[in-house]
Design a protein that fits this description.
The complex is a heterodimer of chains A (about 290) and B (about 260). Helices cover about 75% and strands about 0% of the residues of chain A. Chain A has 14 helices and no strands. Chain B has one domain: MetI-like fold (Orthogonal Bundle), CATH 1.10.3720.10. The chains are: A mainly alpha (about 290), B mainly alpha (about 260). Chains A and B meet through helix 1, helix 2, helix 4, helix 5 and helix 6 of A and helix 1, helix 3, helix 4, helix 5 and helix 6 of B.
Chain lengths: ~290, ~260
């Protein structure tokens, strides 16, 4: 019997060995290249790495207190929440009617509608954002048409404002709201709607009392899928906004790359990650595990 | 009812217009002869000629492809191992493991990218293609695992048992039975992994070394520096056609799985 056979026989007998063999390589990779970096950030944030990149065992909260005592920080956290909140709301307001229309009113070629809806999102995030820059630009055809039709008398200056940041966020994240909503509405038992109307409910009442409550799981899934990445948005404020529209991600970037203050940057990163994770945990507690079954 | 129906229809059409108009405008104006972003004067390929004549673009495209290929292969292997362990066996700590897998999907990429960059610098690892590849794999594994796990739920283990009964050993069974059966799932996960790597900006931006650029980095540096320009319109339209190509592959792979 060769060595291979002996090994195979051993592995065959022990399920735990099989599991360990399968899990060790990916877990080591994740531990070293995904989780260990956050350990380094943690060490920096607690002042446990000095400027000579040596680890010291004298933890201190000085950088956290600097972040927390900086009045601008809370403003930026609030702005990020506000942008992400408005984004979710607009995605819902724009996305719900679309998902509803395709799911309830389109009889034939539903798949065609959905594919048509998804096609713009095949384009990468960066290029979609750039395409929106073209539309928002003062010199764009959009402004020119409005000017020539005398709808406006000076070009709309949207670029580098809060409106631009939010508009481009909606443009990029709409799909994350519509797809879970559509999936949810498709599963919804349509006979319930007939029952409601047989029992005398009008279309508005049916919608408010039956459809809307039943589509809450879809709304919640869309909420998470849009809200979490948009709180951490970095590219959009960088390209279509400016320092006055910066979100947490941009400030962390500025502290790291601009001010090169890794300790404060790390403390802010840690707070930010803790914030995002607690949002997700609150969500899972509220909605349940299935909310994450994307 | 009719009013509601036509309102919904118009609303949906408007949303579709909102989604398509920026992209279509970008493509149209990439063929514009003049530098104007507002008036289309004449059809011209001169901005494309400029892009094609730019060696930086070709180098970046080449880099994007080979980085994407390496990332895809390694992520597939590691993700498949993880997905197989999670779907086939029950063991203690599985719930913790699942959140361990999901966290890379949840954490904002900017925090992840800066942390990895800090560790590279802390450990004196020279930045370049290898550090970019490692960074991409670190988030791709999770996506691959999630996609594969979803596809493997209905997997019928009895054919493997049949193969084993007929005398194949574990490795033979894996390469002759398991892998071919999982082929559609592997294809879908692989195309997703490639797309994520190919389109990635943030992680690449912070983990790359001097001179090593991928296509998104080139687009980013032009867009951040000069804003909208006809030349960048054509470069972006060019990149768009590549994205479309991969999306069509992905769609076909998914179709195949549906059958």
């Amino acid at each position: 019997m060769g060595l291979m056979d002996v090994l195979l026989k051993y592995v065959r007998k022990n399920v735990s060995v099989k599991v360990a063999l399968l899990l060790t390589p990916p877990l080591i990779f994740l531990a070293v290249w995904f989780y260990a970096p956050f350990l380094i950030v943690g060490l920096y944030s607690f002042d446990m790495i000095n400027i000579y990149r040596e680890i010291t065992f004298t933890p201190s909260l000085v950088h956290y207190s600097r972040v927390l005592s900086w009045t601008g920080a809370s403003g930026i956290f609030l702005r990020s929440l506000y942008f992400a909140g408005i984004n979710v709301l607009l995605c819902l307001l724009l996305g719900y009617p679309v998902a509803y229309y395709i799911s309830f009113k389109v009889k034939k070629y539903k798949d065609v509608y959905i594919i048509l809806f998804i096609i713009p999102f095949w384009v990468s995030f960066l290029i979609r954002t750039y395409a929106m820059m073209g539309l928002l630009d003062e010199r764009s055809f959009f402004n020119t048409i409005l000017l020539s039709l005398a709808i406006i008398d000076s070009p709309i200056k949207i670029m580098y404002t809060d409106v631009a940041v939010i508009l481009v966020m909606v443009y990029n994240y709409l799909v994350m709201m519509v797809l879970p909503l559509y999936a949810n509405l498709e599963k919804l038992d349509k006979t319930l709607l007939e029952a409601a109307s047989t029992l005398g409910a009008g279309p508005v009442r049916t919608f408010l009392k039956v459809t809307l409550p039943l589509s809450m799981p879809g709304i919640m899934a869309g909420f998470l899928l849009v809200f979490i990445p948009s709180v951490g948005e970095f590219v959009i404020p960088e390209l279509v906004g400016g320092p006055s529209n910066y979100m947490v991600g941009n400030i962390i970037y500025e502290i790291f790359m601009g001010a090169r203050h890794w300790w404060v940057g790390s403390a802010l990163s840690m707070l930010f990650i803790a914030f995002i994770l607690s949002l997700v945990i609150i969500y899972i507690r509220g909605v349940g595990e299935r909310g994450l079954a994307i | 009812m009719k009013v509601i129906r036509s309102f919904l229809k118009i609303f949906t059409v408007m949303v579709f217009l909102f989604l398509y108009s920026p992209i279509i405008a970008m493509v149209i104006f990439s063929f514009n002869e003049s530098k104007s972003l507002a008036v289309f004067t004449n059809f011209s390929l001169k901005w494309y000629e400029k892009v094609i004549a730019n060696p930086e673009v070709w180098r970046a495209l080449y880099n994007s492809f080979w980085v994407g290929a390496v990332v895809t292969i390694i992520s597939l292997i590691l993700g498949l191992m993880m997905a197989m362990a999670v779907t086939r066996y029950s063991f203690t700590g599985k719930t913790i493991l699942e959140s361990f897998i999901l966290i890379p999907i949840i954490i904002p990429e900017i925090a992840e990218a800066l942390s990895l960059m800090m560790m590279y610098i802390f450990l004196n690892i020279p930045l370049g293609p290898v550090t970019v590849i490692i960074g991409h794999i670190a988030f791709d594994i999770s996506f691959v695992t999630v996609v594969m796990r979803a596809r493997m739920v209905g997997y019928d283990k009895s054919i493997e048992e049949a193969a084993r009964t007929l005398g194949a050993n574990e490795l033979q069974t894996f390469f002759r039975i398991t892998l071919p059966t999982l082929y559609p799932a592997i294809l879908a996960a692989g195309l997703l992994a490639f797309t994520l790597s190919f389109d990635d900006l943030i992680k690449t931006l912070f983990t790359t070394g001097p001179g090593f650029k991928t296509l998104p980095l080139v687009i980013w540096s032009y867009a951040a520096r000069g804003g909208v320009s006809p030349e960048l319109n054509s470069l972006s339209s060019f990149a768009l056609s590549i994205s479309f190509l991969f999306a069509i592959f992905r769609l076909r792979a998914e179709r195949r799985m549906g059958r």
